[in-house]
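Sequence only, no structure available. Ideas?
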Amino acid sequence: MKARVHVMLKEGVLDPQGEAVRHALGALGFEGVGGVRQGKVIELDLADGTTEEQVTQMCEQLLANTVIEKYEIELN
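Reply:
I predicted one. Tokens follow.
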């Protein structure tokens, strides 16, 4: 089984990397980009029988800083 975890900064948390991308896009002539939020995707190859609850525990303990980040789990 595979899991994909999408981790993003929570709304209201300053995203300097996203702001740098937004600025760079404007400098390259791409108009109309009002904001950019940058995150990360973590792909996990899991043993059969691994539950979504276990993946949630992985996120809560290691993969996401839940004080400033939110995450979504996608199981395949």
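The longest strand covers residues 2-9.
Hope that gets you unstuck.
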